[in-house]
Write a structure and sequence with these properties.
Number of helices: 2
Radius of gyration: 11 Å
Shape: globular
Helix content: 25-40%
Strand content: 25-35%
CATH topology: Alpha-Beta Plaits
CATH class: Alpha Beta
Structural class: alpha+beta
Mean pLDDT: 93
Number of domains: 1
Largest sheet: 4 strands, antiparallel
Distance between the termini: 20 Å
Order of helices and strands: EHEEHE
Length: 77
């Protein structure tokens, strides 16, 4: 992993229950280059991802969300 870490805020379009949100976070966290994934307890539509930009890009994070059957947009990119 490089010394550079970037962060992005993702808006999830769907309303996720706790299990769906946890599973989505696990799926994103499993990608090479992802350092950390979290969400806002008050607004479960907002997810925060820390990642190594030399290993993964924002579009890859959005693709992982789509692979899980959900839709999202980068809002803190």
């Amino acid at each position: 992993m490089s010394a550079t870490v970037s962060d992005v805020t993702v808006h999830i379009d769907e309303s996720l229950n706790d299990r769906e949100l946890s599973n989505l976070e696990l799926a994103i966290r499993s990608d090479h280059g992802v350092v950390s994934v979290g969400h806002n307890d008050r607004d479960k539509h907002i997810m925060f991802v820390l990642y190594d930009p030399e290993a993964i890009q924002g579009k890859d994070i959005i693709n992982r969300i789509s692979d899980q059957g959900f839709h999202g947009e980068l809002i803190g990119f």
